[in-house]
Design goal:
Order of helices and strands: EHEHEHHEHEHEHEHEEEHH
Radius of gyration: 17 Å
Largest sheet: 5 strands, parallel
Strand content: 15-25%
Helix content: 40-55%
Oligomer: single chain
Structural class: alpha/beta
Strand order of the largest sheet: 4-5-6-7-8
Shape: globular
């Protein structure tokens, strides 16, 4: 099976460089998301020599309170990549105090992507899916960018709204461990589903999940949607090809 890990923090693993090489050798399409623009250079350098790994330019909402001034660097680097992430909003208790600043930064990101055109964004939306969707509608005209909600935890209504806007969803195994998560994934349009690990923030066995472990997500997704593993993998790969065409 050809596998897709559309959201993995490769640079947070101790064997970062080896993991990039492993993902490429195994033919796993891997999106290496970053958390600050200062991490972009090394990620891009390693990914640019591979066939299957791509680097994304990020500005993680959980770091905005301390790192928001790096948005100027982010804007200067945007022309170097098609992929953007991890970006978005986090309204959880730990980060709620910076939500206004997060919103300001995310609005700038969306405006820049809309102006540039053709960008694909991996979106963080913890307790903020409605607000994220509002901002997308306000700042990005139809067709100017594509959006993938990573580890979506919003309401069923938010999911329908996102799907109606043409958004995709990257699904990981942990999402499929609860009844609510399985119900949500089962309700999403099958032609908008991708897979992810969100490693190293999810586990496989005794260690953090790696891109090669995304096969488990494919199997869980197959069960949730009544497909074989091969059919599930084929659906995800087809969706990726359409997204990135």
């Amino acid at each position: 099976m050809r596998l897709v890990d559309f959201h993995c923090h490769l640079d947070l693993y101790p064997d970062f460089e080896a993991l990039v090489a492993e993902s490429d050798r195994l033919g796993i399409f891997t999106l290496a998301v970053t958390t600050t623009p200062k991490a972009w250079s090394r990620n891009n350098m390693l990914a640019s020599s591979t066939k299957y790994v791509r680097a994304a330019l990020g500005m993680h909402p959980q770091l905005v309170a301390e790192r928001w001034r790096e948005i100027d660097l982010w804007e200067r680097l945007l022309c170097e990549t098609r992929y953007v992430g991890e970006v978005g909003l986090d309204a959880g208790p730990r980060y709620f105090s910076s939500l206004d600043r997060q919103t300001e930064v995310f609005r700038r990101i969306l405006r820049c992507c809309a102006q540039a055109g053709g960008k694909i964004l991996s979106i963080h939306s913890v307790r903020a899916a409605t607000k994220v969707l509002d901002l997308i509608e306000e700042e990005v005209p139809d067709g100017r960018a594509k959006f993938v909600f990573h580890w979506f935890t919003g309401s069923a209504a938010d999911a329908r709204r996102a799907a109606n806007l043409g958004c995709y969803f990257s699904i990981n195994s942990q999402m499929l461990q609860t009844d609510r998560g399985r119900a949500l994934v089962s309700s999403l349009p099958i032609d908008r589903l991708l897979t992810e690990t969100d490693g190293p923030f999810t586990s496989q066995g005794d260690g953090p999940a790696r891109p090669r472990d995304v096969g488990q997500t494919v199997r869980h997704l197959a069960t949730a949607r009544g497909l074989s593993s091969a059919e599930s993998a084929a659906v995800v790969l087809r969706n990726l090809k359409i997204l990135t065409a």
